[in-house]
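Q: Here's a chain of 167 amino acids. Please give me its 3D structure as tokens.
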Amino acid sequence: MRAPDIFGQSLSKPVFITALRMLAGKRLSKAQLTKKLRDRGFPPDVVREAVDECERRKYVDDRTFAQLFVTNALEKKPVGPLRLMRDLIKQGIDGDLAREIVAETEADHDERLERAIRKLEAARPGERFDRLARRLVTQGFTAGAIARALRQRAARGQTIEEPEEMP
């Protein structure tokens, strides 16, 4: 029995089979799958057809990839929206979709920032606010949010040497 026909050719087409094997091993974005197939030496037009077919069949879905990527990243450690955006774009996610997915995480932004501050306080007791702020910027938190959080801590009389009790 012959495999069903897609884009005028059999499903046994090597590029499609290779794409399925790649997707069976790891969730990939559309851009990642395209790059991996091109790196294997398949012609760009054949790669585009195979990736489009994978997308049509919902084997590859950038929205789902981005949501799972962000969820996984936030489970590992508290990171800010700028870092999430940068990492999603690095994974080949379109900028508009990345912004939309990151915006879905805004509800717990302040709590993540507070967790990041507490984690840095525990790892680096006595660190000055300016150094702490720089470290938070590298974790992807915005300068405005960092300044607001550190001002609130200062207003409560907290210093890095006197970290807030964790519940």
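Q: Can you summarize the key feature?
A: The chain is about 65% helix and 0% strand.
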